[in-house]
What we know:
This protein is of the alpha+beta class. The chain is built from 1 helix and 5 strands; from the N terminus they run E-E-H-E-E-E.
Amino acid sequence: MTKIRNNQRLLTSSRSRRPIRLGFTLIEIIVVVTIIALLAGLIVPRIMGRVGDARNNKALADAKSLETQVTMYLLDIEQSRLDPDFELETLRRRADDGGGRNGPYLQKDDNLIDPWGTPYQIVIPGEVNTDFDIISAGEDKQFGNEDDITN
Length: 151
């Protein structure tokens, strides 16, 4: 049964003549929140595992990019090998500051920092590659163990 009062429709039940409530009950809200919490409990651990994988992939891509920049630097200075005292910060210098002819090869200091906030290191001669290795310390921020990432 519907009553019209002052241009408004008011729904009433036929038994009690009380307005019908159109909101949610507390039980319905608790059930929905519980379902969302269960789904979040299943999904969040999977996502968090992928964040670590994404950081590892970014560190590897950054190391390969740094390798390319070092190779460009070598071509510009017309040498085939790096000096043993070469530092990655050289890639940020202009030609008049001690960088290569076309330097700087990196635009930001952030390019020299891995996803965990540790600076990349260069090892000359390389342990994995012949000429040099670019290494990220990995998640534990300690060089020389199994989670290190090398170009």
